[in-house]
Amino acid sequence: MAERRNDGQSTGPTARRIVLGSQLRKLREKAEVSRGDAGYTIRGSESKISRMELGRVGFKERDVEDLLTMYGVTDALEREQFLALVKQSNEPGWWHRYSDLMPNWFTDYVGLEESASRIQTCELQFVPGLLQTEEYTRVLASHGRPERASDETERRVTLRMSRQKVLHRTDAPKLWAVIDESVLHRPIGGQRVLRDQIDHLLEVTRLPNITLQVVPFALSGYAAETSFTMLRFTEPELPDLVYVEHLGGAVYLDRREEIELYSRVVDRLAVDSETPNRSRQILAKRRAEI
Predict the structure, then answer these.
(1) Can you tell me the distance from the alpha carbon of 205 to that of 198, in angstroms, rounded to the nearest whole number?
(2) Annotated domain spans of the chain
């Protein structure tokens, strides 16, 4: 069944759903049952089985029980473990209370971010969300008008601050962030907000699980044409994912050739960027200039 973290915490519900779907797919293939026949068994369709196996929909205990029977899983303990995972995968994550603020494509991302063992992100315009200060976030969430921030805006700020807690867990993921040097010169919120933001970057990069590198102006734009985040997981059923957000939504890339492409970009960024120590010096120098 699903692997558990060292401190006993299991992965989040989004990841559990993917893990459960993957395990059901393996059982179906081992039993040599087609998706169509499996769908018929649970009064559904082939496409429903496909969505279940990809972890894109929730699971009903009755459906899983019927599938386990069809796949020849009769051991009481094994069935009990599967049904326990069904319940866990249907538990709402902490971000559920913000679901009215988030489109479905971002809800999935937050759930996967919670379960990642390594987060690699490249930002060309702003400080990465996981490293932003509250004021910096408020300026962005209010479209540059923090003095007019609505209740909804404040909830968006709270949501982003809550996401940052993942970096301070006992089982915190490794965060490797690359930012374009222009980010340090873009006066989001004015000089004071930018100065405080740089102070925050200098503070959090002292943590052992956080690495920040700055791409100098001279090499800006060569390795990456857009911002992206790569999520890596310890669970074998969870593939590495690349998340690319755009104005109207986001795309998730997980095909081998896509992951290899972005892995090469990550390697190039690591070379083109200043070292972590040199990047901290750049932060300190920029901080003194403001």
Answers:
(1) 11
(2) 13-89, 100-289
